[in-house]
Amino acid sequence: MLTYITNKYFGVLCLLLVNISCFSQDTIFTAVPETLLVRVLEISSAEVSYKNFYNPDGIIRKIANDQVVRIVYENGKTESRFQLKQKTSGSVSPLQLFVVEGKHIALNNTDISHKAAFKIMLKKDSQSNSEELNEELVIADSKKNGQIAFNIAAPACAVAGIYLARQHRYNDPKERMKAKTYFLSGLSACVVSIVTAQIYKAVKNKHIRKAALLYNNDIL
Length: 220
Prior knowledge:
SH3 type barrels
């Protein structure tokens, strides 16, 4: 009995030690994708220096900031790649320059939404823009209007389908079939509108990211 209790508590102790070790390291998520369990030593504007968590006496390794997606520290704090570039210098460019990485946009190393980036670009005098930039902004604006239109159409189709179905909810089999048809048609149109709105949004954001790069070229 004593042996059983001893083994039981020994197992619990081991489990606790494992849990503590799992939550006491820094984690670097890379673009490969690869997850590195490390102890972060230093972050510069270009790279992150670290040691392997399981070999703290080993060599110091380095990884370029553009290969880092984010870092999660042992205390739970998270830093994105946009924040790493300011880690040591703390300086901010006086120019309103965008950073485009994948499907993300940052302004002076601070992550912002596509909507915010679009508003910033629209504030600039269009006559001082390049033709390519104005063209991308016009396309993005048209896709935004399409997204809004389909977002409005989605609930309208659902409501119309329900309304027409309620007008034919009688005991007559033909009327019930009409009611079912109206309901399913309204629901289908609603789903198609939602999906189309998301497609318009994705295309709009793609053109906004392209416009952001052209915007940088214009002000440099």
